[in-house]
Amino acid sequence: MTHKTNHKLHIGSNDRVFVLTGAGISAESGLATFRGSDGLWEGERVEDVASPRGWKRDPERVWRFYSLRRKAAAAAQPNPAHLALASAERRLGDRLFICTQNVDDLHERAGSRNVVHMHGELFQSCCDSCTLEPFADTRLYEIRADHLRCECGGRIRPNIVWFGEVPFYMELILEELGRCTVMLVVGTSGVVQPAASFVHWVNQRQQDSGSSVRTYYIGPEHPANASAFTHVYEGSAGELLPRLLGDQKQDKG
Ligand code: NAD
Ligand code: ZN
């Protein structure tokens, strides 16, 4: 079902909202998404810069790429979509949970607190060989990746979940998927797994338990998994989210 209405979503005092965001929510902040142009992301083939193989083959190239992403993200500002989610969290408290596929920090900078980055964080690094705790890192690496060594001898790499690696926080994400009553998916093409399956898991849960969950997609195009949602709102996140989440003072029940 495609909706083009102006109305606000009803979020009652017993609702729990699971939000999944993708690259599209940061598009209006000027950060490029990566579908669209034949799997290229900022001119690079995704497998060259966002896979363990690409890392093994050319760590310098990978660091150059992520340094540019750090630079772009640091210069970007949260847009009205990030701000609307942060403001909804202030009203709903921990009944609103954000799971983002994004590696930028725009949700946090908009004021969101209850956020997990299932694909890692741009401003963190870790070691590719040992269990060194990921650490905050805003540096731009222009130097040879050879020089970026951990004490164990491994290489320091971006703390990003690359293709073929296991997403972070899956246990917590599954728990939240298991108890949400509203699911809001924003700006993701519905192809990258496992995030693309979250809506199917929620639908399966509804079938199994008879619970009812409203599932909304928000973005300018239909995602690959569009038919799984109860509602699809076509438009940009920056325009639609503030409207859909609006001030919900009267939504007390
Ligand atoms: P994607 O690039 O595959 O798809 C982007 C989606 O956003 C598309 O469906 C598009 O229609 C939609 N979109 C474009 N403009 C929009 C707008 N103004 N409002 C709402 N939606 C809009 O993104 P994905 O599904 O998130 O998968 C990409 C992967 O790449 C993720 O795993 C992510 O980690 C990574 N990535 C992250 C960033 C970031 O952190 N900002 C940027 C690019 C890629
Ligand atoms: Zn190490």
CATH topology label of the largest domain: Rossmann fold
Structural class: alpha/beta
CATH superfamily placement of the largest domain: TPP-binding domain
CATH class of the largest domain, named: Alpha Beta
DSSP strand tally: 12
Indicate the overall shape. globular
Level-2 CATH architecture of the largest domain = 3-Layer(aba) Sandwich
Beta-strand residue percentage: 15-25%
| Helix and strand element order | EEEEHHHHEHEEEEHEHEEH
The biggest sheet amounts to: 7 strands, parallel
Proportion of residues in helical segments: 25-40%
Strand order of the largest sheet: 1-12-11-10-2-5-6
**N→C terminal distance:** 25 Å
How would you describe what is shown here?
By secondary structure, this protein is of the alpha/beta class. The protein has two domains: 1-31 and 78-119 and 167-253, TPP-binding domain (Rossmann fold), CATH 3.40.50.1220; 34-75 and 121-160, SIR2/SIRT2 'Small Domain' (2-Layer Sandwich). The chain has helices at residues 46-49, 52-57, 59-75, 80-92, 106-110, 170-177, 198-209, 237-245; strands at 2-3, 17-21, 40-41, 44-45, 96-100, 115-117, 120-127, 135-136, 156-160, 182-186, 214-219, 231-234. The strands form three sheets. A seven-stranded parallel sheet has the order 1-12-11-10-2-5-6, sandwiched between helices. The chain has a three-stranded antiparallel sheet with strand order 8-7-9, with helices on one face. Strands 3-4 form a two-stranded antiparallel ribbon. Strand 5, helix 5 and strand 6 form a beta-alpha-beta unit. Helix 4 (80-92) packs parallel to helix 8. The protein is globular, with a radius of gyration of 19 Å. The protein binds nicotinamide-adenine-dinucleotide and zinc ion. The site of zinc ion (ZN) has 7 residues, from loops.
